[in-house]
Specification:
This protein has helices spanning 2-17, 84-88, and strands at 25-31, 41-46, 52-59, 64-72, 76-81, 98-101, 111-118, 123-130, 140-142, 155-157, 186-190, 204-210, 216-222, 228-237, 242-248, 261-270, 277-286. It is mainly beta. The chain has two domains: 2-157, Lamin Tail domain (Immunoglobulin-like); 186-286, Sandwich (Immunoglobulin-like).
């Protein structure tokens, strides 16, 4: 079991190394352990501003399956399933959702890893999960299309009373709406993945929001070997709670562009008077 876990984890990280910044479709939600006769299903989401019409390949570590999405509008959902009629017996799916009957990978109940590729073979998304991250009859939802789907911080059990949000906005969707008042301490990283070599996604934005009083902020980025590669903020002074914005171009202090891969980032907030501290651990993905 442990060998399988490490193999799938390494497999997922390798896929993230290949993650394309050109992606406009993500694996958004899955039902891997349904109740009764409900079929397993996979929800895709087109987060771009363009209609998508092309062939894709959905794969597990064993086999890939071709699917064709015809005119999936911008900001719209698609659900792929072996039996659409059977699925409608269990789920109320909006008319605006594209429902596609096709063969899909069998979703393991213990742990598994899925990838989404263009017909050219270029990998555009991955989705790694463990069966303990949601109860039977509840789907796993991605909290945001900008976060890699690789852990139980970015993949959460559906909070919907029906156990899933099939073809609809996820119940755990965090969204970034700057005009709303801050209601929590959080870190947003967009776009993620990003690529220093791309035209429109060559800068990664790190937004740190606080509603509590902290006076020092540090942001350190590491490689997968645990070595610090760059410091974006070194005990920066924070005068008031609010939104603090930072950017990273994928380079070190000498202008060297880092290779595609996964880069852990640690954000530390400190209140020197009260002694209170808060730490966020996130992942930034550099695509090709």
């Amino acid at each position: 079991m442990m060998k399988k876990y490490y193999f799938l984890m390494i497999f997922s990280l390798v896929l993230l190394f290949c993650y394309s910044a050109k992606s406009q479709i993500v694996i958004n939600e899955i039902m891997f352990n349904p109740v009764g006769d409900e079929p397993e299903w996979i929800e895709l989401y087109n987060y771009s501003n363009e209609t998508f019409s092309d062939s894709l390949i959905i794969s597990d570590i064993i086999k890939g399956y071709n699917i064709f999405l015809s005119n999936l509008p911008s900001k719209s959902y698609c659900v792929i399933v072996n039996d659409t009629i059977l699925l409608r017996n269990f789920r109320s799916i909006p008319d605006s959702t594209l429902l596609v009957q096709t063969k899909i990978p069998s979703l393991n109940n213990d742990l598994d890893s899925l990838t989404l590729s263009l017909k050219t073979g270029e990998k555009i998304d991955s989705f790694y999960y463990k069966g303990t991250w949601s109860d039977k009859g509840y789907s796993l939802e991605r909290i945001s299309n900008t976060h890699p789907a690789i852990n139980n911080e970015t993949l959460l059990q559906s909070k919907d009373t029906t156990g899933a949000t099939c073809g609809m906005i996820n119940s755990n969707e965090i969204g970034i709406i700057p005009d709303l008042p801050l209601v929590d301490n959080f870190v947003a990283i967009t776009p993620n993945p990003f690529s220093p070599n791309s035209y429109d996604k060559n800068i990664c934005h790190l937004d740190v929001s606080t509603i509590e009083k902290f006076d020092r902020l540090s942001i350190d980025i590491y490689n997968m070997n645990g070595a610090k590669v760059i410091n974006l903020a070194d005990e920066q002074e924070m005068l008031t709670p609010g939104l603090y914005k930072f950017t990273w171009d994928g380079k070190n202090e000498n202008g060297y562009i880092f290779q595609a891969g996964v880069y852990p980032v640690i954000i530390n907030l400190q209140n020197s008077q009260s002694g209170k501290s808060l730490q966020f651990k996130k992942l930034i993905v550099i695509g090709l």
